[in-house]
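Reading group handout, session on sequence-to-structure problems. Before we discuss, look at one worked example. The prompt was deliberately terse, the way you'd type it at a terminal:

> structure Putative hydrolases of the HAD superfamily

The input record follows.
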Amino acid sequence: MTEPLTTNPKLLVADLDGTLLHDAAVFEDRSITQRSIEAINRAHDAGYLFAIATARPVSTGLRFAQMLPADAVVYLNGALIDFAPGQSDFASLTSPAADDDPDLVKIGFPSERACEVCRMMLEHMPGLQCGIVMNDVRYTNFDVRQYWKTQEFRYTNFQVEPNGNVPAGIADKITVFPDKSQWDTLRTLIPDDFTVSISEGVMWMLMNPQASKEHALTILCDRLGVKPEDTVAFGDDLIDINMMRTAGRGVAVANANPKVLDIADEVCPSNNDDGVAQWIETRLQ
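And the output record:
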């Protein structure tokens, strides 16, 4: 028998990859089951608010948001938060005009600064694979199709227009794919005005310190009128830890990173066993 919650949950927040989504041989084939969709819909109908918090950009996260009764969607680990997902489409979320949309929260950094950081890293580590994510376009020095088959990218010299092809404006994050031999050196190069998180042990993400899942959770609570202690956060990876700690209850899926399992208030079955759905089903009986 599962222990009853020690809080009065009003908001459920779930990561996608490794948590809600089933695994697949390639990134693009990861999927959500009808069981999970139905469980979340039941929870929503029962009065729970629901939000997604993912590292995915709009291009690969939007379709899951459209399958679920989301009251908000956190993309890019917190660099973009959509509070009107039922009305959003790809164009509205990735247009430069999104900077002025009251239903969107954008937390990034000037693209000129992003270019400076990429050039600095490459000066110290020639051949390092890195790129800038901005309005769902990846400006990179490598072919991103080795990681993602469908995401738009453009080769760049890491210069802002007109001397390069990176637009002036607000960038979302810098992504870096170092090999293990480069990790120690790369750590010494991260500027003080960026934080770094590592996704699935492969992709380093350099972001505005305020662009994080835990900060996004506080924004969700403020905008949706929910106290942090009345939230439940589900996750599997290191980048979920602080969000889970910020929530009233942090629930790890059984397949989670051992460090996530260590800090979790509760463990539910694995993502491939629809653990989040099982957790919801148990509490809606």
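Points for discussion. First: The longest strand covers residues 49-53. Second: The longest helix spans residues 111-124.
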